[in-house]
Specification:
The protein is built from 15 helices and 29 strands. By secondary structure, it is α+β, with helices and mostly antiparallel strands. The chain folds into two domains: 198 residues, Distorted Sandwich (Beta-galactosidase, Chain A, domain 5), CATH 2.70.98; 379 residues, Glycosyltransferase. The strands form eight sheets. Strands 1, 2, 3, 4, 5, 10, 14 and 15 form an eight-stranded antiparallel β-sheet that branches. An eight-stranded antiparallel β-sheet has the order 6-7-8-9-16-13-12-11, covered by helices on one side. Helix 4 packs across helix 14. The longest helix has 21 residues.
Length: 606
């Protein structure tokens, strides 16, 4: 089993695949991010579906993305010095989704083997495979609603419920393979030209990347650009929704039950996403994301969810896939996410802040969006007093989480500023009163004088990394003694090998789950931001450098990291981590305005 960091990402702006260093596509869902996987070896065994394309004799590999694209090039060198490349990509979606693999001979002769094992419905269903009589280079696999068309000029044969091809490439020779999904009741899609698809895909990504000139330190710009490409790749283009990750059930601790489905769109990421895209001149994507947000949250304000499907679906029922062993035995494997039914007050603040930031940064005003926000605020006037499940989707019972209350403050604060600064209409006096009441409540009940710090929840002695967001959203300035004390407490209690835990997991802990998880990488980026606000630039830059060094050989980061074993954990690649990287890079860059200072200075002018 490959390590999480051994994978690279391919995507077509509607779904994504993970390719290992060994040349195996071990995860791929067609036709959407949240569809059933046809390759699920990532969470099981090769018999649960994969596509291995690699030399059949011992060889070493290096890989890279071509230019600023999502086209992956893996170079293989055999023991006799022969060299070949495999170029993997998914063309931005046309009529049907494709994954293309082109083998190119560079030097000498390299023998390859393609082993295509298709298993629909997350590795459970073996399809019926036939060779098309009038297209000798085409095989079609069908089961239920799904079908895949496999095209190659290389000779193929069936073997042990897989499609095998063994061939050799000489210098200058190119052998393409194309796998295309289509609904089984439709005709087989027309063949694409692999070489033209490669040129089109490279052109698409290079044009998109070049639209954003990055005025950053030379060694930071490629990291930020790669993170922006990841965010674009995780965007469901038809609607503008951005999934948290393209995977499900990659564990937050090896062998644990902390395995969740992240192929959905979280409102929590709303403001950071908007700021990152706007700061990098991707206004179209920012506008598309905001439009997705308006459609998703429309309806009864009391029914606001923390996450939605890529088209705004609300029903994300969670169930387990018993036939999959899980990544390195980490069970259960889950599809759907029961946290979608939780109450999390912080999402109200994120939504109101996202709309406020959009208006401040010049996106066209959406009148319908303001009407929806008025409904959300009316509901929050009473709801903020109730306990909730918190930012970390706690499954151990509701509490009065400090971060949640502070984000309720953000909601009313941004509403007040929208009326004051932008001439919108609303009950501003009532909102001011509520804003001040929430602020007093948090400062009185969420701060522990003995610890000299805010705490995870009212009456608790536990620390929580989400408290680092208090100065970043403008609740209090970073120089306030209570914030300084909180940052120092986080450093004292939650740092593990120099990185930040979300909170202490222990038996019978707040989350109701068995102990153990890695450090949550976005939290460490938040600490960088706090250091910058405090003028601790050297520490901020040092921590940022350590964080970006955790990226794999093609610049991808997961949700969490295990400092003990030096490996990534959690779903991969993680949008929240890459968002944090982008924003923190601009926050630390030696120029203003940065996303953080824009957000912070609106509340605390220097």
């Amino acid at each position: 089993m490959a390590r999480i960091e051994d994978y690279a990402l391919l995507g077509d702006l509607q779904t994504a695949a993970l390719v290992s260093r060994e040349g195996s596509v071990d995860w791929l869902c067609f036709p959407r991010f949240d569809s059933g996987a046809c390759f699920a070896a990532l969470l099981g065994t090769p018999d649960n579906g994969r596509w291995l394309l690699a030399p059949s004799t011992p060889a070493t590999s290096t890989r890279r993305y071509l230019h600023d694209t999502l086209v992956l090039e893996t170079t293989w060198e055999t023991e006799d010095g022969s060299v070949a490349r495999v170029i993997d990509f998914m063309p931005p979606r046309g009529k049907a989704p494709d994954i293309v693999r082109i083998v190119e001979g560079v030097k000498g002769c390299v023998h390859f083997r393609s082993d295509l094992t298709i298993r629909f419905d997350y590795g459970r269903i073996v399809p019926w495979v036939r060779k098309r009589t009038h297209e000798e280079d085409t095989r079609v696999a069908i089961a239920g609603p799904d079908a895949l068309c496999f095209r190659t000029h290389a000779e193929t044969r069936g073997e042990d419920l897989s499609t095998i091809s063994e061939f050799a490439v000489d210098e200058g020779q190119r052998v393409p393979f194309v796998l295309t999904w289509f609904p089984s009741h439709r005709d087989t899609p027309e063949a694409i030209d692999p070489e033209q698809a490669l040129a089109d895909t490279e052109g698409f990504w290079r044009t998109w990347s070049e639209a954003c000139p990055l005025h950053l330190p030379e060694d930071w710009a490629p990291l930020v650009r790669r993170s922006l490409i990841v965010l674009k790749a995780l965007t469901y283009d038809p609607t503008g929704g951005i999934v948290a990750a393209p995977t499900t059930s990659l564990p937050e601790w090896i062998g644990s039950v902390r395995n969740w489905d992240y192929r959905y769109c979280w409102l929590r990421d709303a403001t950071l996403t908007l700021l990152a895209l706007l700061h990098c001149n991707h206004a179209d994507e920012a506008g598309q994301w905001r439009r997705w947000l308006v459609r998703a949250i429309a309806g009864d304000p009391a029914d606001l969810q923390i996450m939605y499907g890529v088209a705004g679906e609300r029903r994300l029922d969670e169930y387990e896939l018993s036939w999959l062993d899980g990544y390195e035995g980490s069970r259960p494997v889950r599809v759907g996410n029961a946290a979608s039914g939780q109450v999390q007050l912080d999402v109200y603040g994120e939504v109101l802040d996202c709309f406020y930031q959009a208006r401040v940064h010049g996106l066209p005003v959406d009148p319908q969006g303001w009407k929806i926000q008025l409904g959300l605020l009316e509901h929050l006037e009473d709801a903020w007093r109730e306990p909730d499940d918190g930012i970390w989707e706690i499954r151990g019972g509701r509490r009065h989480f400090v971060h949640s209350k502070a984000m309720a403050w953000v909601a009313f604060d941004r509403a007040v500023r929208t009326v004051e600064e932008l001439d919108f209409e609303g009950p501003i006096d009532r909102w001011r009163t509520l804003r001040d009441e929430i602020h007093r409540d948090v400062c009185e009940r969420g701060f522990d004088p003995e610890l000299g710090s805010f705490t995870q929840s009212y009456g608790s002695k536990e620390l929580d990394a989400s408290l680092l967001l208090l100065p970043l959203v403008g609740f209090l300035p970073a120089t306030d003694p209570r914030i300084r004390g909180t940052i120092e407490a986080v450093e004292r209690e939650l740092l593990q090998d120099g990185f930040v835990l979300r909170y202490r997991t222990h038996e019978q802990g707040v989350d109701g789950l068995p102990a153990g998880e890695g450090v949550f990488l976005p939290c460490s980026f938040w600490l960088c931001d706090c250091y910058e606000l405090l003028g601790r630039q050297e520490e901020a830059n040092e921590l940022f450098s350590r964080l970006v060094e955790l990226g794999n050989d093609v610049g991808l980061l997961a949700e969490e990291y295990d400092p003990r074993d030096g490996r990534m954990l959690g779903n991969f690649p993680q949008a929240f981590t890459h968002l944090a990287l982008v924003n923190t890079a601009f926050n630390l860059a030696p120029h203003l305005p940065s996303p953080m200072f824009r957000r912070h200075a609106q509340q605390h002018p220097e």
